[in-house]
C-alpha cells in the first residue's frame, strides 16, 4: 500500500509546484489526519467550535516542519474534493501561526489544473475577504478545546512560502 507522506514526491517541480494530500474538506467540521502507520486518512476529531474549513486542507508529501509534522497546506478550491485526494498545486502565500508554542505555518496554494485560480500568483492576488476568512478560521477553530491556544501571525508572500517548503524538505531529508 502506498504511503502518501513517504512514497509520494513533494511535487512535480517543488517548491513552485507541489502535491497537496487532502485531509480535511472545505465546508466541513471533521478533522481528518493522515496516519502514516496505517496508512490511511482517519477521523481525528470533530472541531469543537462551530466553524468549518475555509478550503481543502492537508499536507505536503515528503515534508516535515518545525512542529514535527508534515507541512500543512490549504488549497483554495471552488468545490471540495475528498480525503486522500492528491492535488497538484502552486504555492501563493503562507500564513504564520503559533499552535500551543510551536510554529505551525500554513502554505496557501491554488490547484494547477483549475483555470479559476490562474489569476492568483502571489499574496496580493488573494482578496482581503478570503484572507480574513482563513485567518478567522485558524484563530477560532480550537477555541472550545480545553487548554489549546492558537495565534495567527499574519501572511507572507509566495517567496516566503517557497522558502518554507524547501526548509520542510530539508527537515524531512534530515529526519527520515
Automatic annotation (TrEMBL):
Positions of Mg(2+) 1 binding: 67, 72, 104
Residues annotated as binding Mg(2+) 2: 72
UniProtKB keywords: Cytoplasm, Hydrolase, Magnesium, Metal-binding
Example of a GO cellular component annotation carried by this entry: cytoplasm
Subcellular location: Cytoplasm
Entries under CDD domains matching the protein: pyrophosphatase
InterPro entries to which the protein is assigned, alphabetical: Pyrophosphatase, Pyrophosphatase_sf
Co-factor(s): Mg(2+)
EC supergroup of this enzyme: hydrolase
Positions that bind substrate: 31, 45, 57, 141
GO molecular function list: inorganic diphosphate phosphatase activity; magnesium ion binding
Record-listed E.C. numbers: 3.6.1.1
Cited function: Catalyzes the hydrolysis of inorganic pyrophosphate (PPi) forming two phosphate ions.
Family as reported in the entry's similarity comment: Belongs to the PPase family.
Protein name from the UniProt record: Inorganic pyrophosphatase
Organism from which the protein derives: Haloarcula limicola
